[in-house]
Amino acid sequence: MKKTFLSALALSAIALSQPAAAQFAKPEDAIKYRKSALVVTAAHFGRLGAMASGKAPFDAKVASENADIVASMSKLPWAAFGEGTDVGETKAKPEIWKQSAKFKEDSDKFQAEAAKLAAAAKTGKEDVFKAAFTATAGTCKTCHDDFRSK
User: Are 134 and 120 in contact (CB under 8 A)?
Assistant: First the structure.
């Protein structure tokens, strides 16, 4: 029963996130949405980073909870980088729209590494977690270097 419910919930979330781009009435709405999704992701990723760097003690339960949130959130912002959302209050570089295939590739890598991070955190092994965190952080850096203004 629980598995069926979780499967239905996951399928619903995926179905609802697909048409997200069509739900933005104005470019400003898309920008606000993606910024919000990225802020939440960064908050939880920061908690993981504190553990990975030794600034906070490793806690497998806390790591797993935060990594699950990062993995879920990693799927959200990309639909909000549609046409016309390259203006306004945003740090998004024009390269996002000029190099859309590379941007998509980078976002896909982040999502894949975030899923691996969530799996690694579930092992409860600090060294496995740290390695997965480093890989995930690398995808963040690559995308920020190429597609985010400072």
Answer: no
User: Phi, psi at residue 92, to the nearest 5°?
Assistant: -65, 130
Burial 94-113 (b: 16+ CB within 10 A, else e): eebbeeeeebeebbebbbeb
8 Å CB contact between 106 and 142: yes
Cβ pair 66, 107 in contact under 8 A: no
pLDDT in tens, 78-122: 999 998 999 888 999 999 999 999 999 999 999 999 999 999 999
Name the pTM for this structure: 0.83
Query: Which residue type sits at 20?
Result: A
- All structural domains of the chain, each given as residue ranges with its CATH number in brackets, are 26-147 (1.20.120.10)
